[in-house]
Design brief:
The structure is a single chain. By secondary structure, the protein is an alpha+beta fold. Helices cover 36% and strands 23% of the residues. It contains 22 helices and 27 strands. Strands 2, 3, 4, 5, 10, 19 and 20 form a 7-stranded mixed sheet that branches. Strands 13-12-11-24-23-22 form a 6-stranded antiparallel sheet, with helices on both faces. Helix 3 packs antiparallel against helix 4 and helix 10 packs antiparallel against helix 20. The radius of gyration is 35 Å and the shape is elongated.
């Protein structure tokens, strides 16, 4: 018995010793945690319970020159349902009325929603999708529906919000307005004004420190490191919605009529270089047209006869010939190094003056004039083209400008046919906008200005930056040459290849072009026609220049010439502006809005809701939601602070006056 007691005592001592060792180990560990590794664990705890959150800056808007919204940021809402969260009694009591309410907003039968909600509950679906891409108005309604009005924990409603970029007036000038996006690799990319002016539009994100509290929620901690977001500035583009609407639909009509592959049109203010309209439409597989590529800016190709103006300008500047000099069109065919140059008119035009040859777009006349004048000094001719700026990009603000090309006599690919081929627009490459800038210089009495898409950067009513006219070449050629060029360009429309466009009610000047693109190739990528017309109006006092290019019109329709395919677009634009003017001697101020587009803009934001006419009560609403709602109603908003709206400077119920500024105090 004594032996057994002794054995038990040993076991007790052993356990006690083990406990003692554990106590020492715990004490050592606690001491180590407290004093040796204390900083590390305190930092780790803080990182898991306290962290910085990004406060996104509100992105600036893009406006047209007449004040219409071209791009704005609005909140999109997605509503899901946690079918496990509501108690059985609450679910059964409200599921029918909830289904009826959802049907009234989302347009599906009530029994559809009831079946789906019951199925979600039976399957214990905690993330059932109810609806996505909801406007603020729709979201506000649904949030107040039976069951959902009990909140996330009792009603199961899950709300997710994202800010999306929208174009309120639709697809018009969509490719030029552009976008900014995140690529699959996580880098940023974009196009158009959105991308080119992102440093102004995006603003600067803020940050706020938050601490994790019960139920996974985070509570703001105010400290000296808090940084408020700086909202982006607004960008005022040069686009005029009225002119843009005319240009877009005139181009679309011709593309559809001729079943063309793609086309573009640009309208530019002569004196300033402000692009008032630009449309780029490509054909989809189903035959519809949409904006996908900025052809006017990016597509560099052989222009054909519109390039003849450069050759004529060089000849007149060097006094190699004159517009009255007579040339023999030689039956419509001339040969250089075994290669034929043909006139489109079979048999040629007989003996005609250089001016008349230009008006009729005679290849044989223009080629002879250039070749005879520069065959012994081709560098002199090419240097003129270079000095005209035809070998350089325009340095546009938006990226993707096509690279022009002019063969140089020192290049290894220069040949005996390079000079005569350049005379009628082959062997060279140029974009439509670069061609337009050149013609605009003639309209502008020799001053070449840079095309501009943005006129101003603004913060509310304060101008941050103003883009003045940028002169690329103060005098592209002599006034005497300009005068002669203007005369022949006017005659092209009066009695030349553009005579189908002539109207006694308003004057136009310009040049037709019908180029063979990809000649020598076969298949889908083979030769096709590009029809164009470029010029300006009014002819005597130019205010606008315009270029139209249509690629791959259907030749089965037996018409692919520039005057027939591209010319009507040019005429429609000029005619509409002149028709709306009080007289043919002046251009009407186009700074006005289009009722149809304004109605579309209103309906876009409020959908089927009746348009609000009163200042709403936004107290208690998140700052982003309040700003989006008020700006969509035409009210300028200035928000101070972060969080939810605590005060609003204009009381709810007041009549809305557009461009009135409301101050929101956030907390």
């Amino acid at each position: 018995m004594a032996v057994e007691d002794k054995y038990i005592s040993y076991r007790i001592y052993l356990v006690a010793f083990a406990i003692f060792l554990m106590a020492i180990a715990i004490a050592v560990k606690l001491t180590n945690i407290q004093w040796v590794e204390g900083d590390y664990y305190r930092k780790l705890a803080k990182e898991r319970t306290v962290k910085n959150f990004i406060i996104p800056a509100n992105k600036g808007n893009i406006y047209s020159a007449d004040g219409s919204l071209l791009a704005t940021s609005i909140p999109n809402y997605e509503i899901r349902f946690d079918a496990v969260a509501p108690k059985a009694e609450a679910f059964e009591k409200n599921v029918k009325s909830l289904s009826d309410s959802l049907a009234s907003v989302l347009g599906k039968p009530s029994n559809f929603f009831e079946n789906e909600l019951r199925k979600a509950r039976a399957n214990k679906n905690r993330y059932y999708l109810v609806a996505r891409k909801l406007s603020y108005t729709q979201y506000s309604k649904i949030k107040g529906f039976p069951l959902f009005n009990l909140g996330a924990y009792k009603g199961g409603i899950i709300i997710e919000q994202e800010t999306v970029r929208e174009h309120p007036i639709g697809k018009i000038a969509e490719r030029t307005v552009g976008y900014e996006r995140t690529t699959e690799s996580g880098s940023f990319d974009g196009k158009g004004i959105e991308w080119a002016f992102r440093k102004y539009l995006n603003g600067k994100d803020g940050k706020i420190l938050k601490q994790k509290i019960a139920k996974g929620q985070w509570k703001p901690i105010r400290d000296i490191n808090e940084v408020e977001p700086q909202d982006g500035y607004d960008v005022i583009s040069t686009i005029d919605v009225y002119v843009q609407d005319i240009a877009h639909h005139a181009l679309l009509k011709q593309l559809e009529l001729y079943e063309a592959d793609h086309g573009c049109v640009v309208v530019m203010e002569t004196k300033t270089g402000h692009v008032k309209a630009i449309s780029n439409l490509g054909r989809a597989d189903d035959g519809t047209y949409y904006e996908t590529t900025n052809y006017a800016v990016a597509e560099s190709h052989e222009p054909g006869s519109t390039y003849k103006l450069a050759g004529l300008m060089a000849l007149l500047e060097d006094k190699k010939t004159d517009t009255s000099t007579v040339y023999d069109s030689k039956g419509g065919v001339v040969v250089y190094s075994g290669k034929k140059v043909n006139d489109s008119h079979t048999g040629g035009y007989g003996k005609i003056s250089l001016a008349r040859g230009f008006e009729l777009s005679s290849n044989t006349v223009l080629v002879q004039a250039v070749y005879n004048g520069y065959k012994n000094e081709p560098s002199k001719f090419v240097n003129h083209l270079n000095n005209f700026g035809l070998n350089r990009t325009l340095g546009l603000s938006i990226k993707g400008e096509g690279i022009p090309y002019i063969p140089q006599p020192r290049d290894k690919n220069w040949s005996n046919i390079s000079l005569p081929w350049m005379a009628f627009g082959y062997g060279v490459h140029i974009t439509p906008l670069q061609t337009l800038a050149f013609y605009n210089a003639v309209a502008n009495d020799g001053e070449m200005v840079k095309p501009q898409f943005v006129s101003e950067i603004k913060e509310w009513n304060r101008t941050i930056k103003k883009y003045e006219k940028e002169v690329l070449n103060p005098r592209i050629c002599s006034p005497e040459t300009i005068s002669k060029l203007k005369a022949v360009l006017a005659n092209v429309v009066k009695k030349g290849t553009g005579s189908k466009l002539y109207s006694k009610d308003f004057s136009m000047a310009g040049k037709t072009g019908t180029a063979q693109v990809n000649y020598g190739k076969s298949g889908r990528s083979g030769m096709y026609y590009a029809s164009s017309f470029v010029g300006y109006f009014p002819a005597d006092k130019p205010m606008y220049s315009c270029i139209v290019v249509v690629h791959r019109p259907n030749t089965a329709l037996n018409n692919f010439y520039g005057v027939d395919v591209a010319g009507p677009v040019f005429k429609r634009i000029a005619q509409k502006i002149f028709t709306d003017a009080p007289s043919t001697n002046e251009i009407k101020n186009l700074n006005r809005k289009i009722t149809k587009q304004e109605n579309n803009y209103d309906s876009y934001f409020v959908k089927s809701e009746k348009k609000l006419q009163l200042i709403p009560n936004v107290k208690g609403m998140s700052g982003m939601d309040a700003v989006a709602l008020l700006e969509n109603l035409g009210v300028k908003v200035k928000a101070v602070g972060v969080g939810k709206v605590k005060k609003q400077s204009l009381a709810a119920g007041q009549n809305i006056v557009k461009n009135t500024t409301i101050l929101l105090e956030l907390s």
